[in-house]
């Protein structure tokens, strides 16, 4: 095993043992979305607080494997404070990296932590473990935006 593989493994284990933004957002206005990956048994709950088109807070509780938990932890760190458009771009880029079989997707320096998950592509069954938090985030952002649209409609009345 190469030095780089060791570093990647260490990054994944670090996020697995100390997941960032772990827990719940205690605010009834927060968006709550659940994600399940039956193939592996991963389950997670994503809490999202979007204000003025920006991700103000994101929290996760995950009962999953190391890949799932680490991927969610990295995602929460990278997306916190981002605008919805920026978050969607990052989500799409990560999904492309994990799913694209031909071209090697190049990540910007800002996202270099995610390189640790690139090796998961060698194990097709585990790709879903890595993608679950991100797919749940897409759903969360959509429903947060719908909620915001509803609020706007109400203020206009
Ligand atoms: Zn898993």
Q: Which terms would index this structure?
A:
globular, 157 residues, binds zinc ion, 3 strands, alpha+beta, 3-stranded antiparallel β-sheet
General description of the model:
- The chain is α+β, with helices and mostly antiparallel strands and 157 residues long.
- The chain has a three-stranded antiparallel β-sheet, covered by helices on one side.
- It has helices at 3-17, 66-79, 84-99, 124-156, and strands spanning 31-37, 42-51, 54-63.
- Strand 2 (42-51) and strand 3 (54-63) form a beta hairpin.
- The protein has a single domain, classed as Sufe protein. Chain: A (Alpha-Beta Complex).
- The protein binds zinc ion (ZN).
- Zinc ion binds at residues 37, 40, 42, 64-65, 67-68, 129.
């Amino acid at each position: 095993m190469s030095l780089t593989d060791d570093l990647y493994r260490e990054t994944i284990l670090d996020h697995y043992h100390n997941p960032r933004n772990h827990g719940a957002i205690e605010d009834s206005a927060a968006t709550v979305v659940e994600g399940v990956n039956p193939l592996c048994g991963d389950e997670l709950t994503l809490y999202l607080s979007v204000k003025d088109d920006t991700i103000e807070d994101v929290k996760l509780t995950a009962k999953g494997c190391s890949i799932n938990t680490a991927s969610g932890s990295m995602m929460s760190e990278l997306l916190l404070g981002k605008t919805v458009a920026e978050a969607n771009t990052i989500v799409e880029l990560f999904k492309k990296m994990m799913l694209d079989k031909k071209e090697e997707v190049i990540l910007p320096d800002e996202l270099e932590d995610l390189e640790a998950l690139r090796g998961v592509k060698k194990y097709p069954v585990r790709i879903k473990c890595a993608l679950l938090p991100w797919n749940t985030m897409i759903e969360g952002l959509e429903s947060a935006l719908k909620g915001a649209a509803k609020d706007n409609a109400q203020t206009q009345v």
